[in-house]
Structure formats: C-alpha cells, structure tokens
Amino acid sequence: MKASHTMKNRASPFASLLPALLVIGVLVLVPALGPSNRTLSLAISAGINIVALYGLAVLFGQTGILSMGHAALVGVGAYVAAILARDAGIGFWVALPLGSLLAAVAAAIVGVPSLRVSGHHFVIMTFAFGQLLAIVLTNGGDFTGAATGLDLQLPVTWFGRDAGELVPYYFIVVAFVAISAIASWAIINSSYGRTLRAIRENEKLAASLGINVGRHKIGAFVVSGLFAGVSGVLLAYFFRHISPNQFSSFPSIYLALMVMIGGARLLLGPIAGGILVSFLPEMLNLDPVESRILYGVCLIAVILLLPNGLIAGLLQGLQAIVKAAFGSRAETPAAGANNASGARR
Amino acid sequence: MNAILEIRGLRKQFGGVTALSGVDLSIDEGEILGVVGPNGSGKTTLFNVVTGVYKPTAGAVTWHGRDITGLVAHEVSGAGIAHTFQQAMAFPGLPVFENVQIACEHARKSARPYPWTTPDALLDFVGLSELAHERAGILPFGSLRLLGIALALATRPSLILLDEPAAGLNDRETQTLVGLVKQFPQHGISVCVIDHDMKLMQMLCRRLVVLDFGSKIADGLIHDVLNDPKVLEVYLGGVL
C-alpha cells in the first residue's frame, strides 16, 4: 500500500503534461497546412493570450484569486518593449526578460495593497488598477505616446535571420506557449503549487499549518505577472503598434473569460480557452458587437453549467458516456480518471 | 509542575461584548487539560486569541518563557502550537495524501524526534491510509476529524489545541480519537481540549478548567471541579 502511494504520486505528474504537449505538437504543424494569413494572425494573437492565460491559471486556478486587470500587466510588458526599442535600441530578445521582470514588479506594487482585501474586493481593486494604468498611459505625453500609443520598428531576428514574418513569428509564439505550459505544469506539481492550492481551499487552515498566506498570495500574483510580461512583449512585436485601449478593461475581461471558458485548473484549459475565444467569432462570422454579446452569453453559460471550464466539462461528459455505454465494468477506469484529475489539480 | 504556556489576564472585547474578561490559565508540560463551559463562555475565543486568529484587547500569552502575544496564525504554528478546527478541518478539493503532504512540507524545524514525519506515517497513525487518494471533501465526518488531527500533528507541535474534537462523532469514532490523543504526551506533545462532552473530558483529562461568561470559575483536578457547587450551578443550571 505504501509503495503504491509513492508510485502513483511520482507517475501522475508527467501524465498530466502529455496532452498539452501533444496539442502543442499539433499546433507546430499548422503552418504546413498552408493557412491563410488571416488565420495565422489570429493563431498568433491567440498564442500571445495563451502565454498570459498560463499565468492566470496559476493565480486563479491554483490560488483561487481572480484578477480583472490582468491586461494592464500585459501592457507593462508591451510598453517596456516599445520604450526600450525607441530610447535604447534594445531588441526583442533582451526586452523579453526585462518586460517580464517589470510586469512582475508592477504586479508586486499592485498586489501588496490589493491583497490585504480578499474575494470580490480584490477583483474590484485589480479592475481599478487596470483602468488606472490605461489613464496613466493616455496621459503619459511623449514618453508613452499618449492616446495614439507607440510604434515599434526594430526587427525580430533569430539565428541571424529575420523572424518578423508571420510563419517564423508563429513558431516563436508557439515555443513560448510550450515554455509557459511547462512552467505552469512545474509550478502546479511543486511544493509551491501545493501551497497555493492549500490557500485556495482553506485559508485559515493553511495559516494554522504555518503557511504565510499573504506573502504567498502576492507571490502568486507576481508569478502571473512574469507570464503577462512575456505576453506583452510578444504582443508589441506582433502588432508593431500599441495603444492604451489594448490594455484597459475589455481586454482584461476577455483574459478572465478565456481562462474560465477553457478551465483554469487543467493544463489544457488555457490553450482551449485562448483558441476558442479568438476563433469563435471568426468562424461564426460575427461583427465585434455581436461577438461581445456572444462572449457575455458564453461566460454566463460556462459559470452556470461548467464551473471548472470546458475541458473539465468534456472529460466529465466522456466519463459519463463511457459509464453509460459499458455499465458497471467501466466504473474502475472512470474512478482512475477521477484520481488522476485530482492529482493534476 | 512545569508550565509551557501561561496566559495572564487575557481580555478580548468585540465592540461592547466582552468575550474574555481577564482569564489566567497555564498548561503544564505533558498534560491533557480540559476546558469546558456553556455556549458563549469564551472557549473558542480563548483558542482564537492564543493561535493568532484574533489579537487580544489586553493580557499576555507566554510560551516557554517567550512572549507570543499577538503573533499571527502562521507564526504561532511555527512556534510549535498546533490547533484543530471545529469546522472546515481539511482542504476539501485535494486528495487526502496531498492534504497531509502540504502540512508536512510546512512543518517547523524541531530538534525533537517525532514518530510521524512523513505523510504515509501520519495517515497510518490516524488510520486513513486506505483513503489516501480520495478527495478530502468526500470523506465522512469522522474521517475528516482524524485528517484534521493528522494535519495538526504534521506541523511537529509541542502543544495541540483541540476545538470540540468529538463533535459529530459516534461512540466508536470517539473511542478511536481518545486512543490517539492519549498517546500524544508520550511523544512530548501536551494537549488542551475544549468540548461540552463531560464523558470525553473524563476519558482524557486529569485537570479541568471551567469558563463562564469569559471568566474562569474553576480550575483543578477533574473530580474536584465536577463536584464544585459553583460549577454545578452554572454548568447544570442548578438543577442538580
């Protein structure tokens, strides 16, 4: 019995990474199918969002804290990239770690006062800070380019060649999606991830076991800022022009929506949420107003019907079908899947 | 007797309500102390002030000669005082094994040898090994209480405060619990238990403290306290 505990706890983490890596493997093959430029552009912006979503997954999925101002942290990364390029001639690869770091610092500055309150109050605080950043950027004069925003002219190169074209940039973004997924997976399966889950499940009990709850909540917010910063630099170098309204309340709500629709606790959640929310309006041929209405309806439907997100809902549905089709014989594998998903969380 | 925890003149006021009005209490090394009192007498407030959930209005708590008044919850745990909760005893969404694993990973460093330092050893001790991979939220109440005990033990305490540990348990489960708690002093863990259940107190404790309206009205050997007319008056409403 004891041996089997250890076995199970060592074997399951890799099993949870595999589906995400398989999906990313499929995504790598997409350019070979000859997609249109429009499709590829959408895929790139979906990927950029997914990087930020993996940070939100740590914050919301593991720690149970929802940020409604997350686009502001993405904005910090994007503006760091644009300002570094304009004033110091610093390019893509150096801007990535710097943008990530500064977004994390911004998260710490917002997190220290905000995380003194919890629940809905924190959500409102993050929303307010998100709006604040948009106002600061709009009134930042020449330094932030005011309401017009900033242009970014430096090329993206890799291995000495230009990588600013759609296809090479797509590969760069997919690589960062993979890195984010693996980083998020490593956090989830570490002692640190377990500590965050303890806080999500029962703050009072966590504190009584010696966990410094406040410090770890701020820590989780800072970690999610690291992801958001990377996402921001990728975004700035993709759109080549950034302006304050890209990082205000609507983009923040979209990010929260994506992570909820996909499911914040499973590793496939951010990928599913990012792709669905980016491609659905396109596939259904909706204009921006209609798509906002659709998002609203989707959000309500997901919260009511699939509180753990689409992927968790699909898995549950599959289990139910298997159970119905094979009767009692299928109960053992279904219970096994339950355990596996428990360990993954 | 060697007191490890000393509480002097502890007061706690919530607005106009006085929950504790100057309580003195000491817990000796290796003893199992019982604290009883009617509802609202301040038992749980006493625990909450000692464990850092509330800050006291006045008074001092001394732990091994060190002033720990006003420390926050995770610092109290780090000092070696563990406690269990009446409600919400575990992390419901996580597997039982992971519950205990988290507690073990945050255990304080202690020079004293503990017989249970791994999740497996703790689950074995409280008899939950078979349920290690179930989600804690689906456990029956009795098992949940035992899991709460395992989590508190995992922090490597030298004092455990048990808040109504037998509430909601049947006789057999209560016997199991008593069997476990009685082993704590052999391993250098003193115990303070609050409960209404006099049968439980008689099984566990030698010394009993009675609280009423935030004050201590009796403190002594359990037999003497239970025959004190003052205690009979407040606790049994004077009917006996």
From TrEMBL, chain B:
Residue ranges of domain ABC transporter in the record: 5-238
InterPro entries: AAA+_ATPase, ABC_AA/LPS_Transport, ABC_transporter-like_ATP-bd, P-loop_NTPase
Lineage: Bacteria, Pseudomonadati, Pseudomonadota, Alphaproteobacteria, Hyphomicrobiales
Protein's name in the database: Branched-chain amino acid transport system ATP-binding protein
CDD domains given in the database record: ABC_Mj1267_LivG_branched
Any Pfam family the entry gives: ABC_tran
Molecular function terms from GO: ATP binding
Keyword tags: ATP-binding, Nucleotide-binding, Transport
